[in-house]
Amino acid sequence: MCPVCQARFRGSTECSRCGADLGTIMGLAAGAWRMREAARQAIAEGDVARARALATQAQEICRSAAGRDLEMVSSWLAGASLEMDKASP
Ligand SMILES: [Zn+2]
User: Which domain holds residue 54?
Assistant: First the structure.
């Protein structure tokens, strides 16, 4: 969505409603999307610390509800694996 007027993106780097330059925010959103994909991949590979770092970074760049869920899941997984590390001798 356009950060200025909340209009939906229409495949242009200029907002169709208010004319704001969306190129920067689109680039950031795409970057955040790639980070979340990398975070999901990291979870699949069992690298939960990396997943959490990527998910947190993605949220800082561009917040979303799905991103928040991913951040919570990866944080929980990272916390759980830390607990396991502490429990092992
Ligand atoms: Zn706009």
Answer: 32-87
